[in-house]
Design goal:
By secondary structure, the protein is of the alpha/beta class. Helices cover 30% and strands 19% of the residues. The radius of gyration is 22 Å and the shape is globular. It starts with 11 loop residues before the first helix and ends in a 6-residue tail after the last helix. The relative contact order is 0.18.
């Protein structure tokens, strides 16, 4: 192995760092703070992950997520985690802020993160942790404000770093951003580059020896579904049909059941490809001897629909296939291994939980709360909010989930679809209520919850380029002077 991979094998003094009692003292002052790695895997639905019981459609002997399986066995898995939103931008603001979409205001692409909304990265940076962020998708671009609190915040794909990309993100009404999304959708492999940059950051001056907060966003499970050929063959042996993984998000009805089954197999292959690369990344933490001093969390922003309700992709509905996401947390010594929490939670609860485990004060002005009580004996459901604003489709929806009860409120029509997921897990038999019926039963609980959230809502911050944003993007290396 070369020195860039194992930098501490070169002399006896460094070799002593491998001893458990000497490790923290080797070339660094002793520090009992934990490091934190937060991984978001884009478009990953829970029911396609191994620890949630998934068996691949054409390859039952394979696992889609053996690494997530391991994390679940060594930590805690949340069985009923809902995404804050069915698309990337608002859901990631929630993941990093602990706020629901109405509370942070980023419900559409024309809005950016408000200046008064603190992010988890800022909490760690202010407390003295090194902070790094590495992302793979246009909607994680720093123009939306995601850079705040990070010492380094960089994209894996090179096309997201440059003047043209920055202009496309910040120009309100610009259609240039669509080109970058098309490029991202067709990008076959982004995990190696993104994880590689994260490792380079940790290796620089042996940064991994000191406490760090690292955010990694992985994109590969997002459509188009074009995994490496060997992965595709593993998950659908012998396939000779016309589907090549492109054009999935086409709602014209051109895909038949067999086509959709192959798309699912390619999606499974993309998930396994991402899981394998994440396992390799984690193995480096083990090589350095720090894995058991790192809180390691994996979550998703949303899933994808495969026509369960007539839609493909995401950003169109609040059904469980797109809203039920995996969330797994490994924290040796703080989380009992093999724990499973059945109560309903949200992915906006993750950031407060990580702050709690790191000994930092969580926020008190937003919905997200630490999940520690749920694995310490109080496994109870929490009311969670889901949100979808899509002006182009005429959608303005609030979703509510509490245990098996779920409600989707159409804010424009004033009506709510109610479901009991124990009796109707596929959400095919809604009970529609409106008017006075909204004041009774589960609908009343949902409406009261929406009103409580609304009292904490922030004014939206418009996505406009300013001299300050230009300066920040220049300093981050995204645009020339």
């Amino acid at each position: 192995m070369g020195p860039a991979i194992f930098p501490f094998f070169h002399d006896m003094k460094s070799l002593l760092c491998l001893l458990p009692l000497a490790m923290l003292a080797c070339n660094r002052a002793e520090d009992d703070r934990v490091s934190v790695v937060l991984v978001s895997i884009d478009s990953l639905r829970a029911d396609f992950c191994s620890p949630y019981g998934h068996s691949p459609l054409f390859a039952p002997g394979e696992k889609t997520t053996p690494f997530l399986d391991r994390l679940a066995q060594e930590g805690v898995l949340f069985e009923s985690c809902s995404a804050a939103s069915p698309w990337t931008l608002p859901s990631h603001v929630s993941i990093l802020s602990g706020a629901s979409p109405p509370e942070h205001g980023v419900r559409a692409r024309r809005f950016r993160i408000p200046a008064d909304l603190g992010l988890i990265s800022e909490k760690f940076q202010d407390a003295g942790w090194a902070t790094g962020g590495f992302f793979s998708a246009p909607f994680l671009h720093p123009a939306w404000g995601f850079f705040r609190g990070f010492d380094v915040y960089l994209p894996g794909p090179p096309y997201l770093q440059g003047l043209e990309a920055a202009e496309a993100m910040v120009q309100r009404g610009s259609r240039k951003i669509q080109g970058f999304h098309e490029q991202a959708d067709s990008d076959r492999e982004t995990s190696p580059a993104t994880l590689g940059k994260a490792l380079e950051w940790l290796e620089e001056d042996e940064r991994w020896r000191d406490p760090f907060f690292l955010f990694i966003h992985l994109w590969d499970p997002h459509y188009d579904y074009q995994p490496p050929k060997d992965y595709a063959v593993r998950f659908h042996p012998g396939y000779e049909g016309p589907v090549d993984g492109t054009g999935f998000n086409d709602d014209t009805g051109k895909w038949g059941p067999e086509d959709l089954d192959h798309f699912k197999a390619l999606y499974e292959a993309e998930i396994r490809y991402t899981d394998d690369h994440l396992a390799s990344f984690f193995s480096r933490l083990e090589d350095w001897g720090i894995a058991n001093r790192v809180v390691f969390a994996v979550v998703s922003d949303h899933g994808d629909e495969f026509a369960e309700h007539g839609q493909l992709g995401h950003h169109k509905t609040l059904f469980e296939e797109v809203m039920h996401v995996p969330m797994v947390l490994r924290a040796p010594g703080m989380v009992p291994p093999g724990t499973r929490v059945s109560g309903t939670v949200s992915n906006y609860d993750l950031a407060p939980t990580l702050l709690d485990l790191a000994g930092l004060e969580p926020w008190t002005d937003r919905s997200g709360k630490s999940l520690r009580p749920l694995w310490k004996g109080a496994d109870a459901s929490r009311a969670t909010l889901m949100d979808l604003l899509h002006p182009g489709r005429g959608l303005d929806l609030h979703g509510w989930r509490f245990g098996p009860d779920k409600g989707v409120f159409d804010r424009r029509r004033g009506s709510m679809a109610l479901f009991n997921l124990d009796k109707d897990p596929g959400e095919h038999n809604p009970r529609m209520v409106s008017g006075e019926e909204l004041g009774r039963g589960p609908a009343a609980l949902a409406m009261a919850f929406f009103e409580e959230i609304a009292r904490r809502a922030r004014a939206a911050a418009a996505m406009e380029e300013s001299a300050e944003m230009t300066r920040i993007l220049e300093e981050l290396g995204y645009i020339g002077g």
